[in-house]
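Let's do one together. I've listed all components of the complex below, 916 residues spread over two lines.
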Amino acid sequence: MVFSSMSFILLFLPIVLLLYYSAGALRWKNTVLLCASLFFYAWGEPVCVLAMLLSTAVNYFCAKAIASSDEPGKKKAALAAGVGVSLALLFYFKYFSFALSNLAALFSLNMSVPQIRLPIGISFYTFQVLTYTVDVYRGKAPLQKSFPRLLLYVSCFPQLIAGPIVQYADVAAQLSERSTALADFNEGFERFVVGLAKKVLLANLCGAAVEALPGGGASSLAGAWYHAFLYTLQIYFDFSAYSDMAIGLGRMLGFRYKENFNYPYVSLSATEFWRRWHISLGSFFRDYVYIPLGGNRRGAGRTALNLLIVWALTGLWHGAAWNFVLWGLYFGVLLILERFVLKSVIEKTPKAVRWIVTFLIAVVGWAIFYETDLSALGSTLRAMFGLAGVPLLDETARRVIRQYSVFPLLAFAFSLPIVPALTERLRAKSERGLAVVRAVSTLLLFALSLVFLVGQSYNPFIYFRF
Amino acid sequence: MNRYLRLAENYILLLASLTLGLYLLLFAPKDGGVSETENRYLQSFPELSASSVLSGEYMDEFESFLSDAFPARERLISLSDAIRGAFGEADAPEEARKLFEEEQGLVDDEAPEEFSNDAALTPQAEELPSDAAPSASAAEMPSAAARGAAIWQERFDGSREIVEQFDAERVAYLAGVLDLYRAALPADGNIFFIHVPASDVANPVFDMHRFADWGDDLDEALQPLVDEGVRIYNATKILEPFENDGPMFSNGDYHWYVKTAWRTSNAFLHDLGYAPSGFYDYKYYLRYSLSKGPYTPEQLQSMTLERENLMVPLVLSPVKTDLITNLTERTSSDVYDFTHHGYTMYAGGAKGPYRLFETGFHTGRSALVISDSYAFSMLYYLFPYYDEVLQTDLRGTNYDSGSVGASIRQYMEQYGVDDIYFVTCHWTSINGSVFTWRLEKLLDSAPQEG
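Okay, and this is what the predicted structure of the assembly comes out as:
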């Protein structure tokens, strides 16, 4: 099910909230939430729910084995089993066809490559359940004795499909003890509405403009850049909208999820960009891959290698295609350069220049991310950098720029922290005024989102496919 | 106090949502109906079955039902369109068409005023510039028998929205021009004429379901007026049987997909007495993944329709291509333009003034294709039936006035043309300010330099 759908907004959410708040004891609240979450997942993927159940069950028993054993060897074996099964499921569903087709191409094998349906959200819930088993092994998190509670952690509908990646240690306590204050409900609902509006009013309209420039806009230099710029906005509003809605829904249900975005497009370096973009993924790779590899404690060379490994994996996590790996390595190399080569240059560079360069780095990055076909990606990049022999501006690009300019400009403005600044200003003047503005804007955004949803066709979130 | 104000509002919004949701679930009409604004059938309440649930079809249809049954839906759509329009993002077909015409060189400063899109045609030879009125005088044209024609989209209530109207006089004029070309061919020669309603007409019918049907009766108006050997085709009739066989026209530009071009070419070839070619008699590249092709028919058939629509047919035998200037000067060219991923990849895009394809087949016949870009993807399907295919595009800059060096008739004689195909989209054809006008003018004269 999609948050920005009629069935979710008009039926699922109000019914779940009604049942949840009628349930009384937390035990019953959790039961309502678990049933709702499984229904939520099965609504879109009725069969694939089994893969999630299997992954959770295996890790439940492996963590139990880890906690009940005193022998390091057995603990390690149980850890390996839990991690192995989860990653094997992820590999099978997400990377098996990709690996086979690459092997076939590499060795000129004549084989048919099976097309395997990717269960929605598998990359997210696999990582979540891994944090549970690994943290139990590390002694950082307590064993969860109740399977339904562990399943609730993995499947909890606000964050099930597209994150944020919630580490078990962060919510372990909330699974067995949590409350919802009035303020939490209000903040949560308003955050959900803001996310809904970002998705329906900004991301989808930027997406329509992206679609209007076929082939990555590579038929002209301006088209290629404008396409990449629009996609830069679309993916930010699409993904951060989902995170807003997830965090808001979680808060309405008593969960506190960490922030996943912090205005990434104000960053002054690629390193800062990744501290502000998809924060939960960065934290996962830092805690569960980079640090176990040795982090930055084994010299510059090893640090650089660790960074490259982490970024290649980060890219691959996003999808089974070489452009994602390329995209990950692109940022890996940039981060290495910033850390070891360009540090002093960056510090001396004026902030405005750093901001522009970082934004352009992000735009080029999203151009790489967008195009899964390498030959088409080559055409797009050649067009962007004037190497394709295409005109500066063609009719298609001119038409799209003329037709789609106001909403993208608005979207760009909202990608900068203008709203928080205005909110603080208003708060300083009048708390009551701020409350009225928030109430009115929530009402307007909710109504406007519904109006736009009525006429829009199904438009799932970009990050669903990861 | 502020907290309670916000809480009350949030509760009211959630309660209102639930009320609306329950109303839709329990009381909204379940039979779908028709949207007058969008001209399409609305989703009825889906039937529950194990297979529809497991395939996800039930959920998709349920979602569509909630959206389609939403109270005051059409007003809300108008409102969202108005908001988008206020921000400059509404669809602008007129502007798109204008840009298309500019881009395609459809604005010809030379053309007499009566050949403009807006003016009715008065085919009086004396009104044309002296160099533009060869043998086709108004007296020779069967205007008395002519009747008008139109392309239309049909609404769900059976009424029609006229897309393009063709005056009787203009129909008669075109008939006269086509007869001139027929007369220039050998006795067993054939003229094939088709104009295809472009994607802006087709997609609202087949892709968006905003209209129930489409139609075009130019063939009925034109066929009785032309000589034997001139065959007028109707794209709407040719494509009608395939309306449920996937998208036929691009959403990204104004062209048709290669499979649609293949279907149309089969209609021509059928009338020449040939068995229709199989779409998968050809291997295909995909425009966006040339490095991975060619794909076998089995691989292609397992791919999605979206992929199918990006296909580039591979020629069945080695084809030699030359650009022809000044009647006989040849410059080697390409059968495909692999530097592009768009429609211009087919046949290398609009290059000219003439291109000669030596097909590698030996049938003893040659063809001339006078077209806009719509024919580019179709050319490949004609190759097996001709020794040589000569192609030209008479529009603006495409027909380079400095290097043509001869009339169309001279080119036809030089390359032994037996059959002529006129293949354009409807924007370029009978009402276009360039195409029909130039057909007559350039048959016996070369364009003037500069």
